[in-house]
């Protein structure tokens, strides 16, 4: 108990001492000290603390750390821990097709802000494009980027699309081409979807391959057109001293997706070129290109030639087309090294070298040929092998023999052993043959032609016709003698003097009458094919057996001939007829019809025959050919009744034939006027011109090539050409007019110009015939004279 009392007293004493000596630490002191950090949370701290007190300081929201203070006599001291550090949120998260960056802060800690940006070609679909680091971590969600999408592309049906034109995203490419080979694109061949969701260009269209006229440097397009079609050739020319760089014509050509001129029409300066070859030198020596008009001297070595084999130097001129007047090249003088066809032997070179100037070759001639001047060799010269020809053909010149003709191969020269046959001309007899030999013609012993003659020949009942033939005792070859029959004989004949004598037969016959056929009459007595002088023949009319008559043969002619004109009642096959007052009316039985239109017809008796009497044909047969405009009517052929369609000149048939089907003519569905159509357009009637008539019949239509002629009415005269021609549906354009004219017949005038007609507007000078000496002028106006001096009427005879 005593001990406890002592302890209590000690404690009270110590407490008293402490209370008296302790110093407080305030919150304000802490905030103003170097220990304070703005991230400390002091909201829960007291305003002051007693000495020796330890205080734990918390961190603001979003920050973390551990920090203790102790209150000492010297103020606040740090016990343990450090400052508050911002709380980390970790990685904010990657967004597809996007990048991010720290907008606020330098690390992913509390308070920092991350901003997201979509890649090129993508757009932000999230409402917020950033995230903020909070105490609980990153707020919101990772933003979303979607690709930019371009609008749907619409193209025409002839455009081919490669790619997706309806759902295209950024970077997608669409390519275009034309479906038709003869079309090209107008516009881009491909477009792409850009980063803004827009197409880089508009869709193209396909159009026909055409080319615009090109701009040609140093040239021009002839008859330039605004547009040229595919495969069309460009007609262009180059300026003076220029020429086309390519000899191939330039055509409008499809190349890939565009139209170009191929080859490109270019003009280049005209130059002539020289090439330096062996055996050739030039003056000037150091120039190889020359302009038109310039010259160059070409000098050849000894065995060479230029222009012609005889020349060793020449001066060609450069022409406007870039060519030399002749090639400026020296060529070595050479000769052909081969045996000619008229040689048996030719000395050939062992090494097959071409003979040059001065070389020689030995030869022998073939049979039928001989060497010229007896030469055995030829020499190569600038004019070829000499002598030339080395072998001459052995020939004979044609010889003409009087009164002969050469038969067979008639020519000016004949080869060795060829034969010529001579035949005596008409009027001569004989023939012979000659053969061509080495020394000329080999002739025979009997080469003679004898003249042919005929002695005169006389016949009974004939005389030589002295009006056409001369009477001679002897006639030459081919002479004709005409004979005429006399007395009771008739006829004439001709004899011709031939190689074997007279040619021809005597043809005199007694005069006779041939059997006579009389319409509607029968021969009833003395029937035979021919009758002599005085023979009589009796006939009877068929429709009146009591009517008979006799005809007589006199001098080869029948006398007493009569006519039988009555018509008998006809037998109408498949029909019937009724005669009333000389007219026959007829129709067909059931199942038949007339070959013409209508169901009945009528006929009249003309010279014993019924005219216009038609046949009755079956209903399934076709009658007369239909009247088709501008068609030539041809007969019906074949049992199937087919008519070939043949149109008149200037028209063309649209079908080949008309066929009878079921009793009607089948025109293949065409109207009659459509079967023959004009080849060229028709002209309507020509225009009416005042005071004129047309001197041809009126037609509704005129063929191409038809002409019409105008004529003026009385007291009018035509001006210009009076005829116009239809040309493919149009009349020629001509100024045709009829104007009144004036004459001076009724005037008391003396006129120097005595023309019958004076045209409208003509002016003439005149003087009066009644004695006045005054002269005047008159002008023809609309057919009347307008006079300046009036002439009084003549008073003579009053």
TrEMBL record:
Keywords recorded for this protein, A-Z: Disulfide bond, Signal, Sushi
Coiled coil region boundaries: none
InterPro entries documented for this protein: ComplSys_Reg/VirEntry_Med, Sushi/SCR/CCP_sf, Sushi_SCR_CCP_dom
Annotated Sushi domain residues: 87-147, 148-208, 209-269, 270-332, 333-393, 394-451, 511-566, 681-740
Keyword Nucleus annotated: no
Amino-acid biosynthesis among keywords: no
Name of one Pfam family that matches: Sushi
Disulfide bridges in this chain: 118-145, 150-193, 683-726
Signal peptide: 1-22
Cell compartment(s), UniProt: Virion
Domain of life, per lineage: Eukaryota
Protein name (database record): Complement factor H-like isoform X1
Lineage, broadest ranks: Eukaryota, Metazoa, Chordata, Craniata, Vertebrata
């Amino acid at each position: 108990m005593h001990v406890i009392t002592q302890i209590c007293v000690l404690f009270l004493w110590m407490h008293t001492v402490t209370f008296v000596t302790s110093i407080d630490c305030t919150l304000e002191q802490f905030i103003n000290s170097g220990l304070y950090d703005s991230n400390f949370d002091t909201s829960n701290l007291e305003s002051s603390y007693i000495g020796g007190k330890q205080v734990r300081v918390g961190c603001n929201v979003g920050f973390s750390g551990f920090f203790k203070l102790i209150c000492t006599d010297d103020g606040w001291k740090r016990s343990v821990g450090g400052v508050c550090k911002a709380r980390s949120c970790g990685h904010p998260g990657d967004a597809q097709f996007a990048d991010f960056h720290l907008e606020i802060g330098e690390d992913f800690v509390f308070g920092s802000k991350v901003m997201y940006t979509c890649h090129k070609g993508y757009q932000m679909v999230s409402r917020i494009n950033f995230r903020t680091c909070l105490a609980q971590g990153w707020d919101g969600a990772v933003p979303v980027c979607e690709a930019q999408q371009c609008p749907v592309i619409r193209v025409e049906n002839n455009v081919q699309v490669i790619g997706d034109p309806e759902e295209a995203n950024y970077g997608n490419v669409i390519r275009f081409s034309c479906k038709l080979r003869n079309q090209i694109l107008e516009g881009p061949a491909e477009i792409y979807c850009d980063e803004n969701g827009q197409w880089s260009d508009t869709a193209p269209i396909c159009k026909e391959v055409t080319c615009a006229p090109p701009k040609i440097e140093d040239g021009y397009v002839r008859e330039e057109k605004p547009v040229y079609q595919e495969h069309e050739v460009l007609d262009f020319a180059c300026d003076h001293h220029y020429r086309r760089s390519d000899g191939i014509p330039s055509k409008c050509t499809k190349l890939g997706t565009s139209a170009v001129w191929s080859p490109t029409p270019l003009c280049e300066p005209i130059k002539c070129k020289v090439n330096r070859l062996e055996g050739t030198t030039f003056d000037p020596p150091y120039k190889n290109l020359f302009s038109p008009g310039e010259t160059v001297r070409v000098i050849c070595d000894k065995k060479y030639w230029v222009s012609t084999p005889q020349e060793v130097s020449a001066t060609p001129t450069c022409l406007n087309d870039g060519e030399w007047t002749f090639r400026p090249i020296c060529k070595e003088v050479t000769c052909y090294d081969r045996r000619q066809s008229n040689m048996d032997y030719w000395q050939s070179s062992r090494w097959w070298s071409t003979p040059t100037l001065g070389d020689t070759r030995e030869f022998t001639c073939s049979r039928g040929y001989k060497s010229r001047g007896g030469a055995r060799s030829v020499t190569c010269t600038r004019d070829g092998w000499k002598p030339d020809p080395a072998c001459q053909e052995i020939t004979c010149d044609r010889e003409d023999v009087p009164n002969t003709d050469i038969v067979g191969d008639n020519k000016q020269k004949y080869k060795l052993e060829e034969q010529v046959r001579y035949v005596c001309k008409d009027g001569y007899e004989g023939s012979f043959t000659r053969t061509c030999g080495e020394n000329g013609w080999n002739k025979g012993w009997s080469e003679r032609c004898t003249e042919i003659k005929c002695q005169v020949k006389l016949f009974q009942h004939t005389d030589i016709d002295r009006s056409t033939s001369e009477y001679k005792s002897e006639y030459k070859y081919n002479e004709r003698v005409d004979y005429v029959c006399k007395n009771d004989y008739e006829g004439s004949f001709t004899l011709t003097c031939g190689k074997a004598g007279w040619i021809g037969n005597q043809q005199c016959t007694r005069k006779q009458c041939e059997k006579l056929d009389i319409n509607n009459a029968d021969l009833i007595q003395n029937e035979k094919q021919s009758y002599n002088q005085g023979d009589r023949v009796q006939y009877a009319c068929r429709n009146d057996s009591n009517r008979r008559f006799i005809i007589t043969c006199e001098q080869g002619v029948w006398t007493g001939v009569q006519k039988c004109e009555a018509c008998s009642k006809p037998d109408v096959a498949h029909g019937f007829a009724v005669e009333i007052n000389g007219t026959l009316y007829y129709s067909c039985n059931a199942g038949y019809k007339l070959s013409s239109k209508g169901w009945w017809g009528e006929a009249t008796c003309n010279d014993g025959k019924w005219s216009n009497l038609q046949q009755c044909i079956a209903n399934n047969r076709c009658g007369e050919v239909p009247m088709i405009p501008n068609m030539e009517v041809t007969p019906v052929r074949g049992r199937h009744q087919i008519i070939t369609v043949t149109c008149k000149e200037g028209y063309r048939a649209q079908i080949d034939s008309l066929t009878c089907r079921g009793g009607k003519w089948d025109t293949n569905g065409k109207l009659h006027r459509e079967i023959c159509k004009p080849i060229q357009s028709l002209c309507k009637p020509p225009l009416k011109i005042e005071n004129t008539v047309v001197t041809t019949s009126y037609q509704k239509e005129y063929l191409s090539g038809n002409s019409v002629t105008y004529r003026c009415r009385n007291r009018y005269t035509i001006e210009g050409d009076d005829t116009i021609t239809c040309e493919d549906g149009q009349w020629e354009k001509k100024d045709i007019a009829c104007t009144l004219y004036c004459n001076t017949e009724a005037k008391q005038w003396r006129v120097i110009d005595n023309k019958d007609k004076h045209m409208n507007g003509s002016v003439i000078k005149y003087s009066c015939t009644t004695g006045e000496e005054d002269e005047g002028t008159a002008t023809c106006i609309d057919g009347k004279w307008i006079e300046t001096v009036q002439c009084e009427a003549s008073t003579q005879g009053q």
